[in-house]
Amino acid sequence: MQRTLFWLAAGLWIGCGSSGAGTARDGTSSGITSGGGGSMSQGNGAGGNGTGSSGTGSSGAGAGGSGAGASSASSGGAGGGAPQPVGAPLVYVGGHEGIFVFRLDEADGALSPVQGPLDAEMNPTFLAVDPARGRLFAVNELGEVDGEPSGAVSAFQIRPEDGTLAFINRASSKGQGPAHLATDRSGRFVLVANYGGGTAAVLPVGQDGALGQAVDEASFGRRSRSHHAVTDPANRFAFVTNLGLNTIAQFTFDAATGRMEPSDPPTLALPAGTTPRHLDFHPSGRFAYVINESSGSITTLSYDPERGTLSAVATVSTLPDGVSAEENACAEVQVAPSGKFVYGSNRGHDSIAIFAVAPDRGTLSPVGHAPTQGKTPRHFQISPTGKLLLVANQDSNNIVAFRVDEETGALEPTGRVTEVPAPTYVGIVAPPAR
Q: Radius of gyration (Cα) for the chain, nearest Å?
């Protein structure tokens, strides 16, 4: 197994063996104020962010693990192998210790460090890149920003020459503890789900990439635990998963103004205890899949693209027979680009569950499980080619690469492991157009 340590702009090798000051976790602390715009942090210590303990962030297993204190390399070789060409895909990693940028070797998943950490004091735990690959947006999973009881969303330019990030601005997320964000299919708006505030908001994106104040908001009640916001493939409808209410809110979406109106019906109600967390659409546009955090399952949803409504078809466990969901928390779900397989992550069992998709109904049949070679797989990403999968193991402080068998869906570790402190998001992006 080849292990890579990341390189900071300050020119220090950073190991993950010593604990930082504070405890990172899958959540937020209240009483955190913004730390200014876009300055590069050295990330010394700071396992968590600020003080207080209101717990308004997203649910699930905590980050814990070691902090990012400056030290000598704790293990492994030096660096990410040979530098990758500028045309190689980029990998953006978000987490409690900031944003990191890497180049990806698609042959084996090796990551070559480019930049980071950035914006560590703002807790950028989930990221999204616009369709043009020119802007990156990050949630600031906080309980308070600039004296307002709300988190925020930060905008960055992706420099076309090398994929590095330059801070543009920040705007309120209109709710505490934002857990997820996505651009609409045009890249003109950012949709954000605020877990602690029980809200969702739509923020406009200017031509310069700057975020404006929210053009629309939806409130579901603080117990709703809004966790995911996304538009459908046609950009006509929007959906928000509400983990605490066991519902998926359904809206019409005006792609010209960013305004949302409740659909008919306004929600899809799921059985008590389902706890829907994240949702992904099938490439056909006929189905979607929601992963259910506490119940350890994935539900197949039939989608009516004319009405913009979802209906539950069938639910399957993400765990092997005999394994209890009580000690597990599901996190991410993604459909392979081919549409033939669906993957879901188990935190606790620490595996990726693999399912084959029935072409007619979209229902899932278990294929197997791949251990993630680490602890607490908060997020993972399948490459656009469908040949590679990267897993962000939050509590073991690493990104692990897997080859994808496109015929069987099976995952095979490549042996490439990159150490990054408490990663909660990993995204593979083709380089921006020059």
A: 20
Residue with tokens 């990693």: 93
Closest of 263, 330, 273, 337 to residue 303, by C-alpha: 263
pLDDT tens-place string over residues 171-181: 999 999 999 99
What is the CB neighbour count within 10 angstroms for residue 75? 11
Residue whose pair of structure tokens reads 């879901």 in the numeric block: 344
Whole-angstrom distance, CA of residue 197 vs CA of residue 309: 25
Side by side, which strands form the sheet with 287-292? 276-281, 287-292, 297-304, 309-317
Mean pLDDT of the chain: 85
DSSP letter string over 348-369? TTTEEEEEEEPTTT--EEEEEE
Kindly tell me the sign of the dihedral angle through the C-alpha atoms of 304, 309, 311, 315: positive
At 12 the three-state DSSP class reads coil
More confident residue, 291 or 49: 291
Asked if 335 and 289 touch (Cβ cutoff 8 Å), the reply is yes
* Full-model pTM: 0.83
Nearest to 424 by CA among 189, 135, 167, 93: 93
Which residue, among 331, 339, 371, has the nearest Cα to 356 in the 3D structure? Answer: 339
Strand pairing of 135-140 and 260-269?
unpaired
Q: What is the pLDDT of residue 78?
A: 29
CB 344, CB 318: distance < 8 Å: yes
CB 379 within 8 A of CB 91: no
Structure-token pair, residue 304: 């009516």
- Largest distance between two CA atoms of the chain: 58
Alpha-carbon gap, residue 410 to 249, rounded angstroms: 33
Rounded CA separation 161/158 (Å): 9
Q: Rounded CA gap, 266 and 53, in Å?
A: 34
The DSSP H or E segment spanning 156 is strand 152-158
**CA angle in degrees (0–180, nearest 5) for 189-191-195:** 160
Question: Rounded distance, CA 433 to CA 161, Å?
Answer: 9
Give 94-128 pLDDT, tens digit per residue.
Answer: 999 999 999 999 999 999 999 999 999 999 999 99
